[in-house]
Amino acid sequence: MLPITAILSHSLLYGAILSLLLSALIVATLLRRPMIWINDAPPALRAAAGPISAADRRRQRLVGAVFLLLLVALPAMALAGLRSSAGGSVTFTEAALSVFIVLMTFNTVDLVLLDWLLVERLLPGRIAFPG
Description:
The chain has helices at 4-32, 43-49, 54-85, 92-122. By secondary structure, the chain is an all-alpha fold. Helix 3 crosses helix 4. The radius of gyration is 18 Å and the shape is elongated. The mean pLDDT is 92.
């Protein structure tokens, strides 16, 4: 059985890597092509922005695929690293805790840094949808 501090530090490292990669992807696409994120906007904003173009729909699928790949690959890599540091096997509780910490690290970074700080405070006028 691994000590909780080892699981925590290992998972936070992978959570930070996941947060960095996904945050860079989100910010880059928000600044260059914000319409690919229109489905995450409130209904009134979606209605005002109008339909998404075919080019943006293709970009939306590509970004979504990269996002999903990273969202699955990084926790899997964290589990593989945790397993090797544990000597070959981890319990279900250790694995579940590790994946939870990795994903919640990204969720926290997304909420605090991207949503509240960047979108709400620093760049509210820069990230604009048509209409």
